[in-house]
């Protein structure tokens, strides 16, 4: 394998059936080395093994928590593991969701939401942007998909409908998701001038192992008009990376055709 292959890093892969894992699989197939950051080493190592057995280069960097120190340490380990690979794509897909009436939400839950959804996003962004700003514009000979796009790197945040509006049980969740959206918009304005692309994706209604178990509705699973497919989300993320500097997206709202929003 070439030593200058570009690097893709994603934080948050859950149990391996959602957006983070699907995006990792697609970027691995697209020629990137893949660094996986997440809690839950079992699923993390399982996905890394899957990708390596398919001929990709992937490594797991498990976290005990999403504190800034843990994220900084993970990025240092990634750099040590692949010292010659330029980081070109970073996806923050981690999240902590609370759906409860306001008076039932505990202080610990609010703190966990802030730590995972806000502080971790800041730490992840900082680590990725520090790497991006060291790089020249990506070139085609690196083997990535943005060789002619005039960009140093792409930072993508996974958001939700709660990023743009609150609801009866989303007070804590929306507060943190609003913060991530504001962070992404601010970074897009600040770092676009350095040819660094920052994007925010609004997604809901994803088909994963967990939603299959919760809904237990085979007709919903089979109908692509009513649910988001993680593989389709991954294709959109790849497209964001491909966008050139003359016309790139800050925010994209992904919905199935029959979604009621």
Summarize the structure in words.
Helix 3 runs parallel beside helix 4. With 261 residues, the chain is an alpha/beta fold. Strands 3-2-1-4-5-6-7 form a seven-stranded parallel β-sheet, sandwiched between helices. Helix 4 links the parallel strand 4 (87-92) and strand 5 (153-159). The chain is built from eight helices and seven strands. The termini are far apart. Helix content is 42%, strand content 15%.
Which key features would you list for this structure?
261 residues; 7-stranded parallel β-sheet; 15% strand; alpha/beta
Task: Give the arrangement of secondary structure elements.
Blueprint: E1 7-11, H1 19-29, E2 33-38, H2 41-53, E3 58-62, H3 68-81, E4 87-92, H4 107-132, E5 153-159, H5 171-191, E6 196-202, H6 209-215, H7 218-222, H8 230-242, E7 251-253
Parallel strand pairs: 1-2, 1-4, 2-3, 4-5, 5-6, 6-7
Helix pairs in contact: 1-8, 3-4, 4-5
Strand order of the largest sheet: 3-2-1-4-5-6-7
Instruction: Tell me, rounded to a whole number, the average pLDDT.
Output: 92
- Please outline the major beta sheet: 7 strands, parallel
Structural class based on helices, strands and sheet pairing: alpha/beta
Low-confidence stretches: none
Q: Tell me the number of helical segments per DSSP (H or I, 4 or more residues long).
A: 8
Radius of gyration over alpha carbons? 18 Å
Tell me roughly what share of residues is in helical segments. 40-55%
Q: Assign an overall shape.
A: globular
Order of helices and strands: EHEHEHEHEHEHHHE
Number of strands: 7
Query: Which percent band covers the strand fraction?
Result: 5-15%
Span between termini: 46 Å
């Amino acid at each position: 394998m070439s030593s200058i292959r570009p690097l893709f890093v994603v934080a948050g892969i859950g149990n391996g059936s959602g957006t983070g894992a699907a995006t990792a699989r697609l970027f691995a197939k697209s020629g990137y080395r893949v660094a996986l950051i997440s809690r839950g080493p079992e699923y993390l190592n399982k996905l890394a093994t899957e990708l390596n057995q398919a001929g990709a280069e992937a490594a797991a960097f498990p976290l005990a928590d999403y504190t800034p120190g843990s994220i900084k340490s993970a990025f240092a380990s990634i750099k040590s593991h692949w010292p010659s690979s330029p980081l070109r794509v970073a996806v923050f897909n981690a999240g902590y969701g609370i759906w409860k009436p306001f008076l039932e939400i505990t202080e610990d839950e609010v703190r966990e939401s802030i730590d995972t959804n806000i502080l971790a996003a800041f730490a992840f962004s900082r680590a990725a942007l520090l790497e991006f700003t060291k790089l020249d514009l990506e070139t085609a000979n690196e083997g990535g998909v943005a060789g002619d796009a005039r960009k140093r790197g792409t930072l993508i945040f996974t958001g939700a409908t709660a990023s743009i509006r609150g609801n009866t049980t989303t007070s804590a969740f929306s507060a943190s998701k609003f913060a991530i959206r504001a962070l992404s918009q601010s970074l897009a304005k600040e770092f676009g001038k350095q040819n660094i692309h920052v994007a925010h994706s609004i997604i809901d209604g994803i088909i994963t192992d967990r939603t299959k178990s919760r809904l237990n509705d085979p007709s919903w699973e089979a109908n692509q008009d009513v649910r988001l497919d993680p593989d389709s989300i991954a294709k959109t993320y790849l497209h964001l990376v491909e966008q050139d500097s003359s016309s790139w997206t800050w925010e994209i709202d992904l919905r199935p055709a029959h979604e009621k929003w």
